[in-house]
From TrEMBL:
Organism: Geodia barretti (Barrett's horny sponge)
Any Gene Ontology biological process: maturation of SSU-rRNA from tricistronic rRNA transcript (SSU-rRNA, 5.8S rRNA, LSU-rRNA)
GO cellular component entries: nucleolus
Enzyme class, UniProt record, top EC level: hydrolase
Record-stated family: Belongs to the DEAD box helicase family. DEAH subfamily.
Protein name in UniProt: RNA helicase
C-alpha cells in the first residue's frame, strides 16, 4: 500500500541519478491524487498519515504533472534498504555488474532476452532492478502494476520469493508467491513469483494482464509447456498493451544461449528482440569421465562421494540423481557412513522411522514395508521404478573405518521436499564439516547451492513419456542431454575452480547423449492446453505461435478427446460445457466431472474426488521395492499393504464408498484426513503425505469457490468430514465418472477356456479401449478382491514389466450405451420385441444391438429412444 513505499521513494532528474543532493523527494500519494494510485485498503490510522503527507507535497505534485507523463516515467528510482550481508553477495553477481545495460534494453524494447549462467543472479536480481527503476509505480515507465515472474517449478517460485523479499528488505506481503493451490499474495504485492501455469490461468480472467507492468519468464531454456504457451500469448498481448498506452514489458531469461526458438521465430516476435548475455565469473571446472559406465549408478555415486570426501580438499559436494527415492536412499547410506552432529529435519524423520521399526520388532506391523495406495491421477512423478536394488550395507564395506570419522552433512533436495527443508541447503555449515547435497534435476538450473566445488553426475534423468495413441505413460530413467550435463558440471565452478565427476565414459557422452533436451510440448498430450486456448478465443490452435509447435497428431488427438467429452463441437468450436470445464484449474476430464456433478447432489463428492485425483503423491513413497509383489500378481495373501489396510479399515462399514473402488478409497482418505485430530500420527499410520493432503484441502476449497462462482444458486459449503454418500449417490457418482472417462473403459478378459494355471495368472487381466491388451489391475487395487466385468481407470502405467490400470472403479455394462453413446456403435433395430410409439412424447422406442469401442465389445441389445 502507498504509505509503505513513500519513505523509500525518490524521484530524480533524468541525467543526475547519482547526485544524491539533487534528489527531489516526492511522496507517492501525489500520484494517487491523479487517480492512478495503487489500490489497497489501509487501516484508519494510516489513512490519516496519508492525508497529512498529501498536503505537504501537493505543490511538488503539480511540478511533476507539468513535466509531462513520459519524462516522469523514465525518471523514477526507488531506493531499497538491503540487509548488510546482501550488499556484499550482490556485488559479486555478474548480473549486477550489467544492470545498466539490462535496464536500458528493457526500457528501449518491449521484449528483452537475457541469457546468463545459472547462479549469475538473474532470478534474484532482475525483479529488484525493475522495482528500483520504478516499474511498479504509477509514474514509472509502464504506468504501474506488478512485476510477475514465472517459474516452471514450484520450488523455485516459493524459495525465490523468500530470498528476494529478504534481499530487498521487504515483507512477503510485498514480494509474494502463488502456486496452484497456495500463495501469499496480498493487495500490497509488488513482485509476484508464480508457476507459469498460474499466469496462464490469470490470462483467462485478464486477457491483457492489466495487473502487470512487467512479466519475467524465467528458466525459458527448460521449455516447459506452459512457458512455451505463455510466450506465444505474450507475443500477442504486448502489441495490444502498447496500443493501450500502458505498455507491458517482457523479459525472457534463459540459462543457456540456445534461444533461437524465441529470438529467430518471426511468428513469435516479428522483429528479433535484443538478446543480452551476461558473462559470469565461472571458474574452470575439470571434467573427469569414468573409464567404464556402471550399471548401478546410485552405488557408484555413493562410492565416488566417499572417495572425494576422503581424499580431496574441503569444498561442498553436489550429487545428481533422478528421483526422490534414490536421493533418500543415497542420503541414508552416506549418513550411515559419515557421522555429523548437526541435526536436520530429515534426521528427525529418520528417528520416526526408527521408532516405527522398533515398534515393529515388538510385533507391530511395519508400515514402511508395503506398496501403498494406487497413485491415481498423478501428473508428475519423481519416483516410480528405480534401478535394481542391491544392499546398501554392502557398499559400506568398501569404506574404511578410519575414513568414517570425517564429518559430512548430507542433505536431500528434490521438488517435493517441504520449503523449510529445502532452505537448509543454503544455511552455513559448521567449520570443518563438508556439505553434501544429494539432488534431483532441480539443482541443475533452478536452485544454486553456494560453495559447491565437486559435482558427481550420474548423467541420468527421469522423464515421463506418453504414448501419443494409447495415452500410456511411462517413466524412463535415461541419459541427460549434453547441454544438461554441462550445466551440471558448471555448478562446481561458481566460487572457485572445481571438479565434475561424470559416472560415465566420454564415449557415452559423445555417442549416447543428445545435444539438447526436447521441449516438453513435443512429448506430452495437449488436451488441457487446447481446451485452455480455445477458452481464450484461439480458434485455430494449429496456427498459434508456439516457439516449437506440437505435432499435428498430438493436436488432433487432443481435439478428439475434447470432442469425446463434449467440450468441442464437431467443427472444433468450444461448447458451453467446454467453457464451464475450462474454468476449473484441473485437467479437462476432471473439469467435466465438476461441470456435470451437480446433477445428482453429488458435487461435494465430485469436488473431493477431483481434488484428490489432481494432487500427486498423496502417499509417502517408501524405499522398499514393491516389485516382487507386482511380478507375482497378488497371490492368495489378500491385502498386502498395511498402509492401505489402515486406510481400508477406515472404509469398513462404509459400504457406499466401497462401491467406488479405488476412487472410494480416495474419498475416504479425504474425509478421514479432514476429520482426524492427530494428523501426524494419522499420516504415519496411513502413509499419507501431510503436505499433499493439505494441498487436497486447499484444492477442495478452491474448486468449491469456483463452483459457487459459476453457479451462485448452489451455495456450496465444504463438509470437511465428507459423510459417506447414500447408495443412490454412490451409483450416480460412478455414472458421473464414467461419463467423463468413456475412452478409459476396460473389459475383463474371459478366462473361461484357460488352464487352471493361466486362469490364476490372468485373473486380473483386462482389455482397454486404447490398446490391444492385456493390461492388469494394480496389485494394490481395491478391486482385486472381486474384479468386475467392466471398469473405468484414471490412467495406465507401464512398469516395464506389465501395464497397470490405475485408479479403477467398477461400472455396469448397461450404463455404457446410456452414458457414453459416442463410443458405441448401434446396429439396425431388432425385430423383437417390436418398436413402440409414445404419442405423448412423440418418441419411438426400439431395441438395438450395440458394440463398444474399437474392439467392438458386444453389449447386447438396448432399448433406445
Ligand atoms: O537465476 P540465476 O541462476 O542466474 O541466479 P540466482 O538464482 O539469482 O542466484 C544468485 C545467487 O544467489 C546465487 O549465488 C545463489 O547461491 C544465491 N542465493 C542464495 O544465497 N539464497 C537463495 N535462497 C537463493 C539464491
Ligand atoms: Mg534462476
Amino acid at each position: 500500500s502507498p504509505h509503505k513505499v513513500t519513505s523509500h521513494l525518490e524521484v530524480v532528474g533524468d541525467e543526475d541519478e547519482e547526485e544524491e543532493e539533487e534528489v527531489q523527494m516526492i511522496e507517492m500519494e501525489v500520484e494517487e491524487a491523479e487517480g492512478e494510485g495503487p489500490e489497497g485498503e489501509e487501516e484508519e490510522v494510516e489513512e490519516e498519515k496519508v492525508k497529512e503527507e498529501r498536503t505537504v507535497t501537493g505543490e511538488e505534485a503539480n511540478v511533476a504533472v507539468e513535466t509531462g507523463v513520459r519524462e516522469r516515467r523514465v525518471a523514477v528510482f526507488v531506493q531499497l534498504k538491503r540487509p548488510g550481508d546482501v550488499q556484499e553477495v550482490r556485488a559479486q553477481l555478474p548480473v549486477v555488474a550489467e544492470e545498466g545495460r539490462i535496464m536500458e534494453s528493457v526500457s528501449g524494447s518491449p521484449v528483452t532476452v537475457l541469457c546468463g549462467e545459472t547462479g549469475s543472479g538473474k532470478t534474484t536480481q532482475l525483479p529488484q532492478f525493475l522495482y528500483e527503476h520504478g516499474y511498479t509505480l504509477p509514474n514509472g515507465p509502464c504506468g504501474g502494476g506488478m512485476i510477475g515472474v514465472t517459474e516452471p517449478r514450484r520450488v523455485a517460485a516459493v524459495s525465490m520469493s523468500h530470498r528476494v523479499a529478504y534481499e530487498m528488505g521487504l515483507s512477503q506481503r510485498q514480494v509474494s508467491y502463488q502456486i496452484r493451490y497456495e500463495g501469499n499474495a496480498t493487495e500490497d504485492t509488488v513482485i509476484k513469483f508464480m508457476t507459469d501455469g498460474v499466469l496462464l490461468r490469470e490470462i483467462e480472467q485478464d486477457l491483457l494482464l492489466q495487473r502487470y507492468s512487467v512479466v519475467v519468464v524465467d528458466e525459458a531454456h527448460e521449455r516447459s509447456v506452459f512457458t512455451d504457451i505463455l510466450l506465444g500469448l505474450l507475443s500477442r498481448i504486448i502489441p495490444l498493451r502498447e496500443k493501450s498506452g500502458r505498455p507491458l514489458k517482457l523479459v525472457v531469461m534463459s540459462a543457456t544461449l540456445r534461444v533461437e526458438d524465441f529470438t529467430k521465430n518471426p511468428l513469435l516476435f516479428p522483429s528479433p528482440p535484443p538478446t543480452l548475455s551476461v558473462e559470469s565469473r565461472q571458474f574452470p571446472v575439470t571434467v573427469h569421465f569414468s573409464r567404464r559406465t556402471p550399471t548401478s549408478y546410485v552405488r557408484e555415486a555413493y562410492l565416488k562421494t566417499c572417495k572425494i570426501h576422503k581424499r580431496l580438499p574441503p569444498g561442498h559436494l553436489l550429487v545428481f540423481l533422478t528421483g526422490q527415492r534414490e536421493v533418500l536412499r543415497l542420503c541414508r547410506a552416506l549418513r550411515g557412513t559419515f557421522p555429523c552432529t548437526q541435526s536436520t529435519g530429515e534426521e528427525r524423520e529418520e528417528g520416526g522411522r526408527r521408532e516405527r521399526r522398533r515398534r515393529k520388532s515388538r510385533g507391530d506391523v511395519d508400515l514402511d514395508k508395503y506398496p501403498l495406495l494406487p497413485e491415481v491421477g498423478r501428473t508428475e512423478c519423481e519416483d516410480e521404478e528405480g534401478e535394481e536394488e542391491d544392499k546398501e550395507t554392502d557398499w559400506k564395506a568398501e569404506v574404511s573405518a578410519h575414513d568414517r570419522q570425517l564429518p559430512m552433512l548430507v542433505l536431500p533436495l528434490y521438488s517435493l521436499l517441504p520449503p523449510e527443508r529445502q532452505a537448509e541447503v543454503f544455511r552455513p555449515v559448521p567449520e570443518g564439516v563438508r556439505l553434501c547435497v544429494v539432488a534431483t534435476n532441480v539443482a541443475e538450473t533452478s536452485i544454486t547451492i553456494p560453495h559447491v566445488k565437486y559435482v558427481v553426475d550420474t548423467g541420468k534423468v527421469k522423464r515421463r513419456y506418453y504414448d501419443k495413441v494409447t495415452g500410456i505413460s511411462t517413466f524412463r530413467v535415461e541419459w541427460v542431454s549434453q547441454a544438461s550435463a554441462n550445466q551440471r558440471a558448471g555448478r562446481a565452478g561458481r566460487t572457485q575452480p572445481g571438479h565434475c565427476y561424470r559416472l560415465y565414459s566420454s564415449a557415452v557422452f559423445q555417442n549416447l547423449l543428445s545435444q539438447f533436451s526436447q521441449p516438453e510440448i513435443c512429448s506430452r498430450p495437449v488436451d488441457d492446453l487446447v481446451l485452455q486456448m480455445k477458452a481464450l478465443g484461439i480458434e485455430r490452435v494449429a496456427h498459434f505461435p508456439f516457439p516449437t509447435p506440437p505435432s499435428p497428431e498430438a493436436l488432433q488427438a487432443a481435439e478428439m478427446v475434447l470432442e469425446g467429452l463434449g467440450a468441442l463441437s464437431s467443427d472444433g468450436r468450444l461448447t458451453d460445457l467446454g467453457r464451464t470445464m475450462s474454468r476449473f484449474p484441473v485437467s479437462p476430464r476432471y473439469g467435466k466431472m465438476l461441470a456435470v456433478g451437480h446433477q445428482y447432489n453429488c458435487l461435494p463428492y465430485v469436488i473431493s474426488l477431483v481434488a484428490a485425483l489432481s494432487v500427486k503423491e498423496l502417499v509417502v513413497q517408501t524405499d522398499h521395492s514393491s516389485r516382487k509383489g507386482e511380478e507375482e500378481g497378488r497371490g492368495e495373501g489378500g491385502v498386502k499393504s498395511s498402509g492401505l489396510a489402515a486406510l481400508r479399515r477406515l472404509c469398513a462399514g462404509k459400504e457406499e464408498f466401497r462401491l467406488l473402488g479405488d476412487l472410494g478409497l480416495l474419498l475416504t482418505v479425504v474425509g478421514a484426513w479432514s476429520h482426524s485430530r492427530g494428523r501426524t500420527e494419522f499420516s504415519a499410520k496411513t502413509g499419507l503425505q501431510p503436505r499433499a493432503m493439505r494441498e487436497v484441502s486447499r484444492l477442495r476449497q478452491q474448486l468449491t469457490n469456483s463452483v459457487n462462482m459459476i453457479c451462485p444458486d448452489l451455495n456450496l459449503v465444504i463438509d470437511p468430514s465428507l459423510a459417506p454418500p447414500t447408495e443412490a449417490q454412490a451409483r450416480h457418482l460412478c455414472q458421473i465418472v464414467l461419463a467423463c472417462l468413456g475412452d478409459r473403459v476396460a473389459r475383463k478378459i474371459s478366462t473361461d477356456n484357460m488352464s487352471a494355471e493361466d486362469k490364476r495368472k490372468q485373473r486380473f487381466s483386462y482389455q482397454c479401449v486404447s490398446c490391444e491388451g492385456p493390461v492388469y489391475l494394480a496389485p494394490n487395487s481395491s478391486l482385486t478382491s472381486c474384479p468386475p466385468d467392466y471398469l473405468v481407470y484414471q490412467d495406465l502405467l507401464d512398469s516395464g514389466h506389465r501395464i497397470y490400470l490405475r485408479g479403477v472403479m467398477a461400472v455396469q455394462e448397461a450404463w455404457l450405451p446410456q452414458l457414453v453413446p459416442q463410443f458405441c456403435k448401434f446396429s439396425e433395430p431388432l425385430e423383437l420385441p417390436p418398436p413402440t410409439f409414445d404419442p405423448n412424447t412423440s418418441t419411438i422406442r426400439c431395441h438395438m444391438s450395440c458394440t463398444y469401442g474399437p474392439h467392438q465389445w458386444p453389449l447386447g441389445s438396448h432399448e433406445m429412444a
